[in-house]
Every structure is written in structure tokens, then in C-alpha cells.
Amino acid sequence: MDDLTEKIKQFAKDKGACLVGIASPDKLSNAPEGWKPWNLLPNVKSLISVAVKLNRTTIFQLPKTLKEYRLNYDLVNNKLNNLVWEISCFLEKEGYEAIPIPASTPFDEKKLMGDISHKHVAVAAGLGKFGLNNLVLTPKYGPYVRFATVLTSVSLNPDKPLNLDICLREECLECIKICPVKALDNPVYNPVEGWRINKEKCYHYLFKVLGLGVCGLCIKVCPIPKQKVNFKFLSKRYAKFLS
Predict the structure, then answer these.
(1) Which residues make beta-bridge pairs with 149?
(2) What contacts 213, CB < 8 A, 6 or more positions away?
(3) Omega into 37 within 30° of 0, i.e. cis?
(4) What is the average pLDDT score of the chain?
(5) Could you read off the pLDDT of 101-112 as tens digits, one per residue?
(6) Phi-psi region of 192 (alpha: psi -120 to 50; beta: other; left: phi over 0)
(7) pTM of this structure
(8) Residues 98, 152: contact at Cβ < 8 Å?
(9) pLDDT by residue (tens digit) across 218-239?
(10) From CA 148, how far away is CA 146, in angstroms rounded?
(11) Is residue 191 reached through a cis peptide bond, with omega within 30 degrees of 0 on the bond before it?
């Protein structure tokens, strides 16, 4: 399936994806019962992870630009939703089943979970690794991307996981310090599985206090990739990605 794999990746990039990766569904076997890929598509053979880049300037100016960030967030989610829908239609024309998973809403507001973890799919597809902020950090864009997923019945060639842990951890800790509600306190670093932040505190702050469903401060202070802020935290191990 080399030709089809590359054809799908090129199709996604032509439609606006900045990153595309393929993962085997068994990489998400540790997902909670009811949230595994085969719970949605019983004969799923591949997971396609796509990313779209956020506008960084808006995030750099937070919290002054919170309303503008909300627009940024919504537009990227809409672009992702259109993207995974078009990929799914493309795969169906090729004779395969495919399900596009929404980038954000709707999601289970009681469990604070979507139908599948886009972040875990992205890590399994080699697009990045989890940071202490429990966001996926990518070598080229850092946390300035959002993800969506396509489940499909075709066996595509999976990408290798990223062999670099990107988060600077104790060299930085800026995301831990800036969180207004301490939702990232006492982090457990696991670049492949991530960790459960205090979602309840985060959700309450986003939707009840701010009222816009976004915050973005933990993205703003992340020094990956090279930015105009916090450059002193970067180390030589990232040089090949940041040139």
C-alpha cells in the first residue's frame, strides 16, 4: 500500500494539512474501554493523523487577544473537520470505509473526552511527543498545531514513532508555572502516553470563568520550537529541527 499511503498524505497536504502521519490502531490499545478505535469502526486497519498550524502571533499576545485566539481556534478546528471529511470521502471513493473524527466539539462533557484521543494518535503516528503540558509537541511547530483523525479499513504503511523527546521538562517548567488554576501541578512525564492533568479545573476555568472555552497560556510559554521568547531554554539536541 505504498502508493496509496503516499497518495493520501499528498492529498491531505494539498488540502491544507501541515503534518500527516499514519498509525496502527493497536497503538491505542491502552485507551479506555469504549474509546478504542475499533469501538467506532470494527474493521479499522489504520489511523490517519492530520495537523493544522495555529496562528502564533495571536497566542504570543495572550491574554489580551483571547477573543482573537478563540477565532483562531475555531477556524483551525473547522479546517481540520473539513480536511478529515475530504480524506474520508477520498478513501470511500477508493472502496474503503472511513470515519472522520471531529477536531473538538462535540465531546463527552461528563468524561471530558472525545470519541478518540487525537493527541495519542498523533504520537503513535510519529508526529510528536507529549510534553508536561500534556500537549503534543512537534519538532517543527512545537504545540502550535491542532489535530484530527480519520479511521479507515485500509491497511496503510504506519510511520515510525518519533525517536526524540522534545519537552525540556525541568529545564523549563514554564507551562506549570503559568497555569492560572494549577491544573498542571505534580506532572508525571510520559512522552508516549501523556498524563491526566486536572481536566476538571481546566474545563471550569475555560468555560465557566473565561466563558470562551480557550486559554492558550501553556502554549504561549512553550519554548519549542525556536521562538522570540524563552530561547535560553533550548538545547543543542534540537538544532537539526530549528535551523
Answers:
(1) 49, 101
(2) 70, 73, 206, 207
(3) no
(4) 89
(5) 999 866 666 666
(6) alpha
(7) 0.89
(8) yes
(9) 999 999 985 443 434 444 444 4
(10) 7
(11) no
The domain spans of the chain are 1-233
Which pLDDT belongs to residue 239?
45
The string of DSSP codes covering 172-235 is T-HHHHH-TT-TT-S----TTT-----HHHHHIIIIIIISSS---HHHHT---S--SSSGGG--
pLDDT in tens, 167-180: 999 999 999 999 99
CA atoms within 13 A of residue 213's CA, in its CB half-sphere? 11
What is the residue-wise DSSP string for 78-89? HHHHHHHHHHHH
From first CA to last CA, the distance across the chain in angstroms is 33
- 73-90 burial: b if 16+ Cβ within 10 Å, else e: beebbebbbbbbbbbbeb
User: How many CB atoms neighbour CB 29 within 10 A?
Assistant: 10
- Cα–Cα distances in angstroms (integers) from residue 171 to residues 97, 98, 133, 166, 220, in the given order: 45, 42, 14, 12, 17
